[in-house]
Structures
1.
Amino acid sequence: MRVLILGNGAREHAITWKFSQSRRIAGLFVAPGNAGTNSIATNLPHVNPCDPQEVLDACQGFRINHVFIGGEDPLAAGVSDALIEAGIPCIGPRRKTAQLETSKAFSKAFMERNGIPTAQANAFTYFPAFERVVRERDHRLVLKKSGLAAGKGVLESDDTDEMLAYGKSVLETDTLVVEDHLVGYEVSVFAITDGITHQLLPCCTDYKKAGDGGTGPNTGGMGSICPVPWLENTAWEQIQNEIVEPTFTALRAEGLSFVGVLYFGIMVTANGPFVLEYNVRFGDPEAQVLLPLIRADFGDLCEAMTKQRLSEFSIEVSPKSSVGVVVAAKGYPGVYDTGIPVTGLPTDDSALVFHAATTERDGVTLTGSGRCFTVVGRGKELLDAMNTAYAAVGSVRFDGAWFRSDIGGRIFGN
Ligand code: AMP
Ligand code: GLY
């Protein structure tokens, strides 16, 4: 197989690393890639992953026969549609299906008409109607920008003035979704699908807030663990029976089936699990902890997906645990600098270090994003994995580097 991965984040580094271990790989390319993928694949730094024609040209130029789309932006730009039309097998849905992620208004309506448990919500395009709901409410609300926001378009609040100001700013450019605030703990559930059937992978947890103890603003995710030892069997069964199965039935019924990964962001509450959001790709940082536990050859697995042979494929998973800690730049999730020199990247393989948007100049690695690295430890138990990750994370040094110190601990609300 000659595989192209689209993206430059730590998730795409993990996907590239997983492919690099496949016995099926004859060529491995990443567009644009980062300083981490550069050592295990060929980076195509000048190919814009969100430009369908540039991606098609790269496929032709490098005789690519499988494309793995890492993140949501190329999906929103219709790259998958272009590849499917050109007959190039790809992992990732068409733009129409990607609305499950790219439009919260679309995904809420999908859940409501198909009876999938989710927080009660309303979509607004007009400020006075929204203002009335905020002023008449008797409980905490969650306000969401409908379009893509890299995990940062959500406000949880019970302060009227804060909500009105936030809602007003969203309504200037987008639809505003307002929903009831759910209380519980969050899990990220991943199903891979070949368009006909699907298989579930072990559950992960993403630590969404910037601060220890689940405090501070929302981020794209400051750390992750896999599996989640506190997820009860009953909740896992309800997730499968009341959420995953009905979702795939509805996707088929509505002509939205696809080849790729469906990500269910779930809140497990005292009244059972509810869907917070769908995404149509692996999570970041969840992929960084999940993929190292998959034992199946990733080339074989992807071919089973693109050839609709997933039902014959068994995805063997390690019984180990893994913990990933994100090392972020000073200022993230607000404004931060890039191009900061990095030292101390571990060279042994006791922990895995996945880069996000890093570059290299004169042999020095430079930061390129807000969530700069994910350091992943694996171990027999969660505690062993935490110890391995935290033993390595402090050695990743750059000016202003910071990380949460409680990844792996159980926190309600994350
Ligand atoms: P979303 O982008 O919809 O997943 O929202 C981002 C984060 O906001 C979630 O991971 C939760 O931590 C929080 N959140 C979203 N919706 C709700 C809700 N209805 N109740 C409580 N927390 C929520
Ligand atoms: N970890 C959250 C996301 O990938 O959307």
Note: The chain has a mean pLDDT of 95.
2.
Amino acid sequence: MKTLQVSLGDRSYPIYIGPGLLCKTDLFKPHVAGQSIYVVSNTTVAPLYSKKLIQTISRDAKSVHEIILPDGESYKDWATLQKIFDVMLSKGADRKSVIIALGGGVIGDMAGFAAASFMRGIRFIQVPTTLLAQVDSSVGGKTGINHPLGKNMIGAFHQPVAVIADLDTLKTLPPRELSAGLAEVVKHGAIADATFFDWIESHTKELLGCDPNAMSHAVERSCEIKSAVVAADEKESGIRAILNYGHTFGHAIESGLGYGEWLHGEAVGCGMVMAADLSARLGHIPSSDVTRIQELVTALGLPNCAPKLGNQRFFELMQIDKKSEGGEIRYITLEKIGRAKIEMADHAIVSQTLSAYQAS
Ligand code: NAD
Ligand code: GLY
């Protein structure tokens, strides 16, 4: 098992990464001992893993309650969030109760937001079970839900007390979901570590085959990169925005098509190709780097061409992005593979990217 630390003063917390962690009583005990625990999961993940998790924590916890939500991005909304509060209040949850988010990014974001807002904030543990959640969403404390007008528009920063990433859970992940998670792995290489990007390029077969050594390196290096960025800028007043590389275009695709049509990681994969193209049009990187990113995204089974929403619609959707300021869209571009920056860009140049990457 590897242990990393997210360094945020008195809100610092460990990330545990390794196989078999769902059964490790010692990792959960400091947070669950003597408390009422609410395990939030969904109809797909609960039948696979909640029994094992509940067995692990039952001896130490005062009580354990399961909250099983419907599965899917389209349920990351107010109505589903309300179900968490309904159960917690009806079972007598209090300020010492602890939520455990058992699932992918949708469950982690929603259960985290429930923890951020229940009685003005209670503790929660992230137990991510998708690759995307293990390499990205479980770390950093961004929690929230979607609004029909914009992705992740309602939420709060609320750090977990621990992240427990059991690599064995990835064995049951459908291939499409594995590819979606790999998009965020590529993102970390593209924005912060050219050597890691090279490594991903030369290990696509192992990554797609869920090889244990490859997965463990991908999760560990991604968490190291993300933790360092979060520690430097927890609430995204600056540098943390680079973690949104590919997301300005990607979120527009997700909300433009309707949540759940494309997976989040698929939209990010395509969005990274578009943001690389924009970087080349702005003169930052050579077209050979755009080709590298496009080929890697394609090799990992991700789309590299956006659905035809129309340039006007794309701009409208991108304006609702949280990085926008006074209606001005801010883009994450690459200065080179391994280094990103945040900038405004001329409408006409972005239009060229949009026209080049929408399906005809
Ligand atoms: P997801 O949570 O919808 O999970 C994908 C699918 O896999 C679901 O059907 C889920 O039930 C299933 N699943 C989960 N674990 C499984 C397992 N071990 N075996 C079999 N099936 C399993 O999607 P995701 O890709 O994990 O997360 C996407 C979400 O994360 C989006 O809402 C996105 O906005 C959010 N996100 C948040 C952050 C953040 O910093 N908070 C970062 C990136 C993404
Ligand atoms: N996934 C973007 C962030 O956590 O900041």
Note: Residues 136, 140, 142, 240, 243-244 surround glycine (ligand 2) (CB under 6 Å).
